[in-house]
Amino acid sequence: MSKPWRAVNPEQHAKPSGFSYAIVSQGGRRVHIAGHTAMNAEGAVEPLGDLVGQARKTLESLNETLKEAGGRPEHLVRMRIYVMSADDYAANAREIGMLYRQQFGKWFPAMTLVQVARLFDPGALIEIEAEAVIPDNEVV
Q1: For FRET with 56, which of 8, 49, 86, 123 sits at 20 to 30 Å CA-CA?
Q2: Cβ(134)–Cβ(140) under 8 Å?
Q3: Beta-sheet pairing, 76-83 with 110-115
Q4: In a 3-state reduction of DSSP, which class is residue 8?
C-alpha cells in the first residue's frame, strides 16, 4: 500500500526528535481534527492542574477521534499542541513523549508547540488539533 504522504527531514537541519520538519501529501482523504482537551464525557476537564494527566487524556481522545474517522496513527500529517506553559511542557516532555508513543507509536508528523494565555475549556492546560491523510484505497 502506498502512502499519500512522505516525511521531509533535511540533513542540514538538526535531527528532529518527536516530530518531522515537513510532511508532503498528495491525494488521499483529508481529516481535520478539532482541538481536543482532557474533557470527560460530562464536559469537565480532568485531572485539574496536572499537565501529564491531561496530556494522557487528550492524546487518548484524539486517537479515538482519528480511529472513528477511519484513520490510524501513521495517517497523521500535522499536530498543533497548545499549552498554558511551554516550560511545564518541556519539564515533562519525556513523559509526554512516552504517552504519545503509547497512542501513536513511533510515527511523528509535523508538529508545533504553542504557548497560549488561555484555552477555551476552563482548567485545560493542553489542547491538541491534528490533520490526517488517509489513502484513497483504504475504506473508511
Answers
A1: 8
A2: yes
A3: parallel
A4: strand
